[in-house]
Write a structure and sequence with these properties.
alpha/beta, Rossmann fold, Dihydrodipicolinate Reductase, domain 2, 2 domains, six-stranded parallel sheet, disordered N terminus, oxidoreductase, Gfo/Idh/MocA family oxidoreductase, nucleotide binding, GFO_IDH_MocA-like_dom, NAD(P)-bd_dom_sf
Length: 388
């Protein structure tokens, strides 16, 4: 029985006006890795008047120079690797846009060099790497933020406001995930030596962050995980690129294209998770958050585009009657990458807190890593996180 739930919706729609600050001078900025994701970083950085891109590093000869020319960056210096750049330059901050397996070492080296770091997602590949990154962060005293731009979306913020409002009561079960019917990215994503992890590192970490951030990032306790790559290793479902045939891409494929897990979280919360790069289905289902006083349905998206797939529905009781409240789609006024870059730069200037702290994403990474480990063992395992 549908009723007017405006009073519930109003509890969750407070807005805070953004404050624009004028800065004197410019932050000296570097980019490590000039591949596809770096394009989004540089487009946002070029809009900011308080930052100067002074250095770029890439392992492929000439790639950084071509990247700078493509985007009209003038006067920057180029380096064959991150180590030589960090040694030669006095940088305030860097965007770390390397491939997954390089995230840990490049970030640790930058922090040890006294440089603030915006690290693209996933944080890294293993729990142990995440811990080593955080140890370097703690020792350096520098700022580290992880690149989860969907957090900046107004609909994602609404999900957290709904949970924080208490209208759902105690959260006890969450199902989340999503993915693509066909969406294998190829490139360095699919090789074990560069990607390390597949669909979970590419898009699964986003869906985990959406719900874990909403409920305050409780510690994961146990994981029962499953992974497969039936599609990625089959030439029929691969596509050729300018470097490889479909068969060659299938032969290169060494990560998961599908993952599922049953995760027990602190606070007696169950997380039911699944993510896919390829399957014979448009989506494995909407995200659902169940609580003792209400439930929230979050429509899935076609390809994890950083927001929700449609108007959300809040299910609750009013005066003893079952009712639903539609939560309309909210418009985010700025681009999510612009907001991600801006929040990081502001935190560097103000010596503030990281917008997306490593202390949270450690748990995100631990869940992914323990899904891999559980799948290899074929049984439930305890989540083990070394001391920082």
């Amino acid at each position: 029985m549908a009723k007017n739930g405006d009073e519930v919706l109003n509890q969750t729609t407070q807005s805070v006006a953004a404050e624009t600050k004028k800065r004197e001078g410019k932050l000296k900025y570097g980019i490590i890795g000039t591949g596809w994701i770096a394009e989004s970083h540089i487009q946002s950085l070029l809009k900011m008047d308080d930052v100067e891109i002074v250095a770029l590093a890439d392992l492929i000869p000439g790639k950084a120079e071509a990247f700078a020319e493509q985007w009209g960056v003038k006067g920057a210096r180029y380096y064959p690797d991150h180590a030589s750049m960090l040694k030669a330059e006095k940088l305030d901050a860097v965007s770390n846009c390397t491939y997954n397996v390089a995230h840990a070492q490049t970030t640790i080296d930058a922090l040890n060099a006294g440089v603030n770091v915006l690290l693209e997602k996933p944080m890294c590949v293993t729990t142990e790497e995440a811990v080593e990154i955080m140890r370097a962060e703690k020792k350096s005293g520098k700022l580290l933020s992880i690149g989860f731009q969907p957090r900046m979306d107004e609909n994602m913020k609404m999900i957290k406001r709904i949970v924080d409002s208490g209208v759902l009561g105690k959260i006890y079960y969450i199902q989340t995930g999503g993915g693509r019917r066909r969406g294998i990215p190829n490139s360095t994503f699919i090789e074990k030596s560069t990607g390390g992890i597949g669909a979970m590192g590419d898009i699964g970490c986003y869906s985990l962050d959406m719900v874990l951030n909403a409920i305050g990032y409780p510690k994961p306790l146990t994981v029962t995980g499953y992974t497969s790559n039936f599609f990625g290793t089959n030439p029929k479902y691969q596509r050729p690129d300018k470097f490889h045939t479909a068969a060659e891409n299938a032969a290169r494929f060494g990560v998961e294209d599908f993952a599922a897990a049953f995760v027990r979280l602190e606070g007696d919360i169950i997380l039911d998770f699944r993510i896919s790069w390829a399957m014979h289905l448009d989506t494995p289902g909407d995200t659902v958050i169940l609580g003792t006083e209400g439930a929230l349905r979050i429509p899935s998206t076609d390809c994890w585009n950083g927001t929700v797939g449609g108007a959300m529905t809040l299910y609750h009781d009013v005066a003893g009657e079952q009712t639903q409240t539609e939560i309309p789609i909210l418009k985010t006024k700025e681009g999510l990458f612009d907001l991600k870059i801006r929040s990081f730069l502001d935190a560097v200037w103000d010596k503030g807190e990281p917008p997306i702290p490593s202390s949270q994403i450690l748990y995100n990474q631990a869940i992914i890593d323990h899904i891999v480990k559980s799948a290899q063992l074929g049984k439930e395992i305890d989540v083990v996180i070394p001391e920082i």
